[in-house]
Amino acid sequence: MKVLVISASPRADGNSHLLAEAALDGARAAGHDVAHVFLDDYVERLFGNCRTCRLADGRCSLDDRYEDLLLNRMLPADGIIFAMPLYFYGMPGRLKTVFDRLFCYISNSAPQQARVMDGITGKKVGVLISSEENYVGATAGVVAQFQEATRYLHQELVGVVVGNGNVRGEIARDPSDPVGRARELGARLFDIRVTDYRLDTVRPNAVWECPAVN
Ligand SMILES: Cc1cc2nc3c(=O)[nH]c(=O)nc-3n(C[C@H](O)[C@H](O)[C@H](O)COP(=O)(O)O)c2cc1C
Prior knowledge:
alpha/beta, Rossmann fold, 5-stranded parallel beta sheet, globular, binds flavin mononucleotide, NAD(P)H dehydrogenase, ISF_SsuE-like, FMN_Rdtase-like_dom
C-alpha cells in the first residue's frame, strides 16, 4: 500500500517531524511504499473564494505546488498521515489550506472534479499532533475537525496520536511514548478496524475474536 506522510510544521527538526519519521519507519517496516512531504514545499497561497483566481476553463491559477501535492501525491496514496503541531487549538493554517483549496478541485466547475472526487475517497487517515499543553480539550477541536472532514470525504480516520513537547525534539521524552505510538500507527494503518455502530447493527457481543462467552 502507498502511505503518504504530510508534515505540516515549518520546523523540519521539530516535534511533529519526529512523529512523522516514526510513522514512516513503522509503515516501511510493515512493507508499505512510503513517501514524505513538507507542506512548506507545496502550499504558499491561501484559498480565495472570490473565484477570480480560476482560469476560464475552471482550473486553479495560484502559482504554487498545491496541485502537484493534491494530484500527484495525495490522490495516489492509499493512506495519508498528517503530522502537525497544535496552533491555537487547531491545525496550522497551511494544513487547513490543503482542505480549503480542495474546494476548487471538487466543485462542479473544476475540470478535475471527477478525478479528484474519485481519488480522494476511500483512504485511511492518521493524525499525529504535537502540543505543549496536554489537557484533553486542547486537541479536542482539531480531532473533531479531522473526524468530520474524513467522514465528508468518505475516508476513515483510523488513529490519532497526541504527544507533548515545546522545545524542538523534546517529544521524544514524553513518557506516554508518542513516538512509539506514531510508529505503531504507521505500521497498522491498514489493519486498524474502526467500528461505528447503530442501534440495529448486527454484531457479535465480543469485540475481538475469542471463545464463545455469554
Ligand atoms: C503559533 C503557535 C501556536 C501554538 N498554539 C498552541 C496551543 O494552542 N496549544 C498548545 O498546547 N501548544 C501550542 N503551541 C506549541 C506547539 O504546538 C508545540 O511547540 C509543538 O510541539 C510544536 O511542534 P513542531 O516542533 O512540530 O513545530 C503553539 C506554537 C505556536 C508556534
